[in-house]
Amino acid sequence: MNELVGKHEFQKAFPPRKIVVAECGSGHEVKHLFAPCVFHHSSGHILIVCRWDDQGGAEGDSTNRQALYFSDDKGVTWRLAGSGPLITTETGSSFPVPSSITHGWLFEDELGRTWIYYTVNQPFTWGKNSPERSTGGGEIRRVEISWSGTGWILSGPSSIVWEMGKVLPGPDGKGLPNMRVVAWNGILRLRSGTLLMPIGGRETVENPSGTFFPLDRTWVLASRNDGETWDEAHFMAGGAGQAFAEPTLVETGTDDEIVGTKLFN
Q1: Distance between CA atoms of 65 and 100, rounded to whole angstroms?
Q2: Is residue 5 assigned to a domain?
Q3: What is the per-residue pLDDT across 99-116, written as a single tens digit (0 to 9) for each?
Q4: Residue 245 is part of which domain span?
Q5: Of 11, 93, 100, 136, which shows the fewest CB atoms inside 10 Å?
């Protein structure tokens, strides 16, 4: 009874209203959508960056890209920025073949610049039964976007935030050189001004050829110059044979005291 009353009171305070941002499926132009990020921009716009695929039909396809939807009327109506995905292989990738572009999210820096951070999966990492597909982890990149007066557009080329294979610390303090990483969740700005980005990662090889490696470790990347560089990394949890993933962070009432959560399968 208490649960039912609680749900009823919640619905009275926040009455549900269905608003369709975009639709996908066999009967639509877009075959696959996945939106992990909703962002309230200082302009008043609400922005959603999402995995977008008008050719394939599932996560991990090499045709997975990133599109941006925006609303300038408090979420009542939505428009697609541009005529298709903003972020494609041509926007920036260090890999020689197309690969899934995934887990985009937004950040607004202290200068008022708006960035989409995203991950390009290392190709051929889904598993031996689907060697042409890829799964979470590779390199993390970012690209600036801006409001043109009529829509949101790219403001320049993308750049690498954390490259694949860059050494990350292990639990014993020793460096781990063969990791590919993915950033699922947004940046936390501490009251001190330091930025923290939670990431996950797994071991890999240069030419995986369909070899799958389980996601098993998490870290925090730190920036002390408002996101210009991310050269500092701190180990959170996990290890070979474990399954730590999708970390999130929050700052407590004590300055620079962080609580992190991690999914453990």
Answers
A1: 7
A2: no
A3: 999 999 999 999 999 999
A4: 21-264
A5: 11
